[in-house]
Design brief:
This protein has 100 residues and is mainly alpha-helical. It has four helices and three strands. The chain has one domain (3-83): Winged helix-like DNA-binding domain superfamily/Winged helix DNA-binding domain (Arc Repressor Mutant, subunit A, Orthogonal Bundle), CATH 1.10.10.
Length: 100
């Protein structure tokens, strides 16, 4: 098992969850860093931006302020559907299996 790959996928899921809690407002990368980073998963600002960029490429989030010092992000309608388990989650995001 590739530990780095697993950590990236878990980070992506945590980011989606944090953005869902912040809805309907954009969430700053500082708040996201505080929400997803922990002893179990240290995250650098570069890693955070890389995974936010990945989620934007997948059309799950929209990033604003890319030309500024601080990014803001918010879920797209498809991102909300992924978090709410109403659509399939393709590989690359460690969304747990629905148990209810």
């Amino acid at each position: 098992m590739d530990l780095e790959k697993t950590q990236r996928e878990v980070l992506r899921w945590r980011l989606l969850q944090a953005l869902d809690v912040g809805r309907p407002y954009p969430v700053s990368e500082e708040v996201l860093m505080a929400a997803v980073c922990g002893e179990d998963m240290p995250v650098s600002p570069r890693e955070l931006r890389r995974e936010l960029d990945y989620l934007e490429d997948r059309k799950l989030i929209i990033i604003s302020g890319k030309d500024t010092a601080s990014w803001d992000a918010e879920l797209t309608h498809h991102g909300v559907d992924v978090v709410e388990y109403t659509v399939e989650c393709h590989p690359g995001i460690a969304r747990p299996k629905k148990y209810w």
